[in-house]
Amino acid sequence: MASVLGTSSTAIASRSLVSPSSKIAIPSISINPGQSSGRKFNGGIGIQRRPQFHIAVTNVATEINSVEQAQKLAAKESQRPVYPFAAIVGQDEMKLCLLLNVIDPKIGGVMIMGDRGTGKSTTVRSLVDLLPEIKVVYGDPYNSDPEDPESMGIEVREKITKGEQLTLTMTKINMVDLPLGATEDRVCGTIDIEKALTEGVKAFEPGLLAKANRGILYVDEVNLLDDHLVDVLLDSAASGWNTVEREGISISHPARFILIGSGNPEEGELRPQLLDRFGMHAQVGTVRDAELRVKIVEERARFDKNPKEFRDSYKAEQEKLQQQIDSARSFLSSVQIDHDLKVKISKVCAELNVDGLRGDIVTNRAAKALAALKGRDKVTAEDIATVIPNCLRHRLRKDPLESIDSGLLVVEKFYEVFS
User: Fold this and answer.
1) Which of 98, 212, 236, 323 is 20 to 30 A from 133 (CA-CA)?
2) Could you tell me which residues are beta bridge partners of residue 110?
3) Residue 115, Cα to own-chain centre: how many angstroms?
4) Strand, helix or coil at 175?
5) Which residues are catalytically annotated?
6) Three-state SS for 256?
7) Rounded to whole angstroms, how far apart are CA atoms 371 and 268?
């Protein structure tokens, strides 16, 4: 499988979504140097407006903006320092899967399985710095999208129906950690006890699924998650909505999130129903090269000694990655894939006896996202070869007598069909 992260050969410019004072010109990185075609394009994420909704948008007052910026800056400085994504050594397959899901959230998330101590959780949490900004309704607990009815909370829909003006703001995509010991009420939401006692009214208190809407929901050691929480995740992942029935209250809210899970296969298998909900599957192995291991140990020691200084040393590379993600997101809608390639993808899925059509859909989406990341408007067979093992590996039927890795089976079938 082709190497996934390489040196920069193309500069891609993009208009930043933040204020002019914080705008930074950032070069791009390129995958497979020499194969990217140079391309410049502007803009954020192109979203088509739905004609049935007419939204009047008011600009947020300057005072509110300045207060928000100050609050964001203070919150950022007080946060626990995160290891930079650009500083992760090796693990290219895992990093590529994560980047493709940030570019196109509809891929459906990533399941990362591998040995303990291989940087799975560190890599996922390091995504926080690279997440782009999205447009949301100010003060809405569900991060409602003002231009997509499917991602709107009920209150926002009612305001639009009444013709009320919406105040919009830009915010970073949320990453929500789901602890193994979380209760169902905390995940789904529950009755607001404070309002019930003080005001005598039944009110809903949103849970983690509401916070994760249009963001990322990360479950570490997902194979150890309690069955009742797995059922909740399955329900929300299938419908994109979370419905809560509590004490006479019935409420539904959007819960469309990128589901990212990590775990060690030695600690238990994942339920096949949940495994199928992950768009991609990355396998992580322990680094065997002694020099590389020494480099990883030294880098980690530098980070532990002085996190701020270590993060500053990778600032340029982080900004370069962030710029490329923004550019790829804005360019994604214009990427095309030939009908002949689509037929071959489906033929691979059919000959591997993959159940359902999720494998076909995810492979098409992931290949387009990879082409956008490379700055191209057309998907090639090489793009498909890079992503198809990650899209189909976990969807094959398990044969206990089979010794060959399922990812290798997918690669063999790919070359057989595409030759």
Assistant:
1) 236
2) 260, 280
3) 22
4) strand
5) 358
6) coil
7) 35
